[in-house]
Design brief:
87% of the residues lie in helices and 0% in strands. The chain is an all-alpha fold.
């Protein structure tokens, strides 16, 4: 039972990754908009850019991890077939 619940929190496809990245971006841009109101001027815009940059870095890491897992799985299947 715990395994089924755990599978809900695993990103399996690129589509799921894009949905999660979109949700992260939506939240980050909302946070960035609040920063521009709380800290008027250059400081607010720098914080806004930092929230956007964090989403870019996080999204790239998520997509790279999916690619790495797919390649590792393919390599493991190829090794087991070759043996």
């Amino acid at each position: 039972m715990l395994g089924k619940v755990k599978r809900l929190f695993v990103i399996k496809t690129r589509f799921e990754a894009y949905l999660i990245i979109f949700a992260l971006a939506l939240g980050a841009m909302t946070r960035g908009a609040h920063y521009t109101l709380e800290f008027p001027g250059l400081g607010g815009y720098l914080l806004f850019a930092a929230t956007a940059g964090a989403v870019f870095l996080g999204g790239a890491k998520i997509l790279d991890a999916l690619r790495y897992e797919r390649e590792a799985k393919a390599a493991a299947e190829g090794d087991s077939v070759a043996e």
